[in-house]
Design goal:
Layout (H helix, E strand, L loop, with lengths): L8 E4 L5 H12 L3 E6 L2 H15 L3 E5 L5 H11 L4 E4 L14 H29 L2 E6 L12 H21 L4 E8 L5 H14 L3 H9 L10 H11 L11 E4 L9
Parallel strand pairs: 1-2, 1-4, 2-3, 4-5, 5-6, 6-7
Helix pairs in contact: 1-2, 1-8, 4-5, 6-7
Length: about 260
């Protein structure tokens, strides 16, 4: 399928690896030039060169912490006018509800709610002026069904979901389409870290922790960044113009819900 976005320009956050890298790869395959961001300069540059070599698009890198005001300013200065925005940031640490204080919640809000909102407020007005834009916010399956160990993520990402529910409908008539993409467990460093935490607590091998979790997923495996990126590219495409403020769940069927 021709996604109809060849020659567009996208900003993809946290794109040196994992789900962000999957999104960047899929957009590049569709002919989109990229501005990609991550904190680690070495991994970011390696990702950029690999994407350029594989897909022949232009890739600009900005090594910065997107969750900080200064880092965000650097990224926005390099990004300029973009047609597609993919917001993404690492999730806060796991724990139980008694573990977290006010500062923990504020850090989670900054990373997983306020940063995506700030990026949308900075870039969507330009999309409106040009009459076309796409925003994909990477959130979590936890906004559909809370995950007890990820209470900070549950809280912050649900707040972002509420913001998008209203905002997306206010800009749709201007040609700007905003949706959320909700990952379940994918084969990323985040999943490895969570499996490692379970293994340590229960005194088992990390491979056993992974196998146990895979058994709870109807498809029997973790998702791949490439699968996730393909859906991100579709939501960024010309074909997504009638999808407004939706929460698209990619979790292998793990969330047991009718809606």
């Amino acid at each position: 399928m021709d996604l109809g976005i060849r020659g567009k320009r996208a900003l993809v956050c946290a794109a040196s690896k994992g789900l962000g890298r999957g999104c960047a790869e899929a957009l590049a395959e569709a002919g989109v030039d990229l501005v990609i961001n991550a904190r680690g300069a070495e991994a970011l540059e390696a990702a950029a060169r690999a994407i350029e070599a594989a897909h022949g698009v232009k890739v600009t890198t900005v090594a910065a912490d997107i969750t900080s005001e200064a880092g965000r300013a650097d990224v926005l200065a390099a990004a300029g006018d973009v047609d597609i925005l993919v917001t993404n940031a690492g999730g806060p640490p796991p724990g139980i509800w008694t573990d977290w204080d006010r500062e923990d919640f504020l850090r989670a809000f900054d990373a997983n709610m306020l940063t995506p909102i700030a990026l949308m407020q900075a870039l969507v007005p330009g999309m409106i002026a040009r009459g076309w834009g796409r925003v994909v916010n990477i959130t979590s399956q936890s906004v559909k069904a809370p995950i007890p160990a990820l209470g900070l993520s549950n809280t912050a990402r649900t707040g972002l979901t509420g913001f998008v529910a209203g905002m997306a409908r206010q800009v749709a008539g201007k040609g700007v389409i905003v949706n959320n993409l909700l990952p379940g467990i994918h084969d990323t460093d985040r999943a490895t870290a969570l499996d490692g935490g379970v293994a340590e607590r229960e005194g088992i091998d990390p491979s056993e922790a992974r196998s146990r979790r895979e058994a709870t997923i109807p498809v029997g495996r973790y998702g791949t960044p490439a699968e996730f990126g393909a859906m991100c590219a579709f939501l960024s495409s010309q074909h997504a113009g009638y999808m407004i403020g939706q929460n698209v769940l990619l979790d292998g069927g793990a969330t047991n819900a009718t809606f």
